[in-house]
Every structure is written in structure tokens, then in C-alpha cells.
Design a protein that fits this description.
Elements (H helix, E strand, L loop, with lengths): L1 H28 L1 H5 L2 E6 L5 E3 L3 E9 L3 E4 L2 E2 L7 E7 L3 E10 L5 E11 L2
Parallel strand pairs: 2-8
Antiparallel strand pairs: 1-3, 3-6, 4-5, 4-7, 7-8
Amino acid sequence: MAIFLHKKKIVAGIVIVFLIAIVGYGFFQARNILMGPQISLVTPQNGATITGSPLVTIAGKTNNVSFISLNDRPIFIDQQGNFNEQLLLSPGYNAWTLTAQDKFGRTVSKHFNLIFNKT
């Protein structure tokens, strides 16, 4: 009788470990969906002062995004989530907004500022 109870505890322990592994793997695979859309800017740095040419390249990376816009204008992202867009700056202070949306309708917006000096 004691051997039967010991085997039952071992089987129950194995089943519990297996279920914990399955649930953990499910959360690991769903982590990007659970976190929602993300935007990170690579260049230029927020608050940077740009001199010379008023044409600046905005580049960055997104995760879990189905739609992205720069100042309410749709922009292209590649399969890895990278974007690369050119923006013409006005003299002085320039503010712009990146807005991303995932396939579930969740949105995130990031506001960035640049200062452009002609000289």
C-alpha cells in the first residue's frame, strides 16, 4: 500500500511539473502580444539640435505593430519592425508624434522634439 501511494505522489508531481512547463511556455510565447505595441527611436535622439540640411531621417524599431504613423501620416515598416522615414524640418523647434497600433486596437504614441538651426 505504501508503494502505491509513493508512485501516486511521483505521478502527481510529474503532472504538476508538466502543467507548469506548458503554462510557462504559453506565457513566454505570448509575451509580445500581452505587452502591446512598442516604439523605439534609433535616430535622431529626442531633443537633438540639427544643423545643415533640414532633411532628417527618422529611424527606429517597433514590436507587435500592425499600423504606424508619423504625424498622422502612415509610414512603412519592414517584416522585422524597422522603419526609416525622411522628415523636412522647419527652422527652430519641431515636434512630431509616432503612433503605433497593434492588431487588437491598442495604441501607443511617442512624442519627439528636434531643434533645427540653418547655420
